[in-house]
Amino acid sequence: MNCPECSQSDVLEIEHILPDEIEVRFFFCHNCEEKWWNRDGIDIDVTQVLEMVRQSKT
Ligand SMILES: [Zn+2]
Predict the structure, then answer these.
(1) What's the gap in Å between 43 CA and the centre of ligand 1?
(2) Residue 12 alpha carbon to ligand 1 centre in Å
(3) How confident is the model at residue 58, as a pLDDT?
(4) Ligand 1 centroid – CA 28 distance (Å)
(5) Where does the chain show beta strands of DSSP type E?
(6) Contact (CB, 8 A) for 19 and 57
(7) β-strands 23-29, 42-44 pairing
(8) Structure pTM?
(9) Which one of 14, 29, 43, 46 has the largest count of C-beta atoms within 10 Å of its C-beta?
(10) What distance separates the 2 farthest-apart alpha carbons in the chain?
(11) How many A from CA of 5 to the centre of ligand 1?
(12) So what's the pLDDT on residue 5?
């Protein structure tokens, strides 16, 4: 995985399982400190992650 901002490969990847067993990945670039989220290979906004967490509790 390369950073979409700076194209460096020095990227941290953390897998998260949301309450509904939705699998998302968090990426953090050590080089430029860009952060982003991905679900099933699709980039998503952090607000979408929070929305999924919130929906699972209702
Ligand atoms: Zn970067």
Answers:
(1) 15
(2) 10
(3) 63
(4) 8
(5) 11-17, 23-29, 35-39, 42-44
(6) yes
(7) unpaired
(8) 0.85
(9) 29
(10) 40
(11) 5
(12) 96
pLDDT of residue 44 exceeding 90, the answer is yes
Ligand 1 centroid, distance to 36 Cα (angstroms): 10
Confidence of residue 56 (pLDDT cuts 50, 70, 90): confident
7 CA distance to ligand 1 middle (Å):
6
Residue 20 has pLDDT above 90, yes or no: no
56 C-alpha to ligand 1 centroid (Å): 32
- Give me the count of residues in the chain: 58
Under the banding of pLDDT at 50, 70 and 90, the label for residue 22 is very high
Q: Which tokens is 12 given?
A: 């941290």
Segment 14-29 shows an average pLDDT of 94
Contact 29, 5 (CB under 8 A): yes
